[in-house]
């Protein structure tokens, strides 16, 4: 069992007031076994580790790319502004001074104070919000993180976090009933990792809000601040009662199970997908409560960074397959995952992440993707990862149509030779606003009969 914990974080919020929660549970022997199977601490690695035996990788990002560039727009969106219902005082921005790749395979989120004493930082959330275990199976959300290397007075007010929120929050749900899994939090440069489940009602309720149901532990081997550690949450539907379990470097330190709350509260918090969030807040109820004073202070050092080596979502058991309908349109949709096609073939892909792409695409060909869910707010942007080795003078259009390959396109973009059939580039396009659930068709039009494009993946945004 973890030591007694006081105080626990108040809720954060995703523009609606929400924040932080996660859990774990199992025997010490099982935790030791998990530690032998999953990623361990050490120097930053360049790629996401392969899934252990019995697990399948659902989604990942290894944050590769040139230094000073933003994280992938196909995977992430920014959460901008200030406050978030927690008392934190920074302004979250989309500036690469606050959120950027470091060129060494890491994402860097940096908190900065200007000459006027105003703080800025960064907060991003995954476009995909459909992460949940298969029926009778397990889901693991894991990330290798180096928290800011600051302690003592220099760290006052720093509040790094890796967490999730329930998908219904994006479609009118309320916090904390939709569930919040805080996979990692720390404040003020302590050598502690906090894990928390938020659920039920606020204040009070079955989940003791706004504190939540949480535990904490010191990081094994080396202090949490300034060192690489792997933080994970396992969400287990293969046992009864269902469990949430928290880990640091493969060692379980906390768990919550469904018998600890009433059935309705558990269902509201867990019977849906979640999306992933990273942020580095400054000040607020949690760091202030631990410090016993308002933070940050004049002694707080500007420029502390949280580094993220990778994030990986894994599934095990339960016969996991992608849902046939209702799949989020805002995740990365692999081109080869089509429901039907005409005129194309798949091939091995040398783009980042490997796998396959769809090629041999020419005029009149199409790809069909059933049941993509655009939600109620709707999408107005489309991005696709494409390559072309077409001859000079050969080009064409990649078109988006809804519910029929002959419907009027809602948007398109042109593509010509990109330098080769495996020379990949991401092309954006504006589309007419799309809401609800649709079968999406990518159709291809060209004035020449020759193949003109390969497609690796695509996604939608707003």
UniProtKB/TrEMBL annotation:
Any Pfam family the entry gives: GH16_XgeA
Residues annotated as signal peptide: 1-39
InterPro entries: Beta-glucanase-like, CBM6, Cellulose-bd_IV, ConA-like_dom_sf, Galactose-bd-like_sf, Glycosyl_Hydrlase_16, TAT_signal
Entry keyword set: Plasmid, Signal
SUPFAM superfamilies listed in its UniProt record: Concanavalin A-like lectins/glucanases, Galactose-binding domain-like
Source superkingdom: Bacteria
Keyword flag Signal: yes
SMART domains: CBD_IV
Record bears the keyword Glycoprotein: no
CDD domains, per the entry: CBM6_xylanase-like, GH16_Strep_laminarinase_like
GH16 domain location: 44-319
An annotated GO BP: carbohydrate metabolic process
GO molecular function: carbohydrate binding; hydrolase activity, hydrolyzing O-glycosyl compounds
Stated family: Belongs to the glycosyl hydrolase 16 family.
The protein's name in its UniProt record: Secreted glucosidase
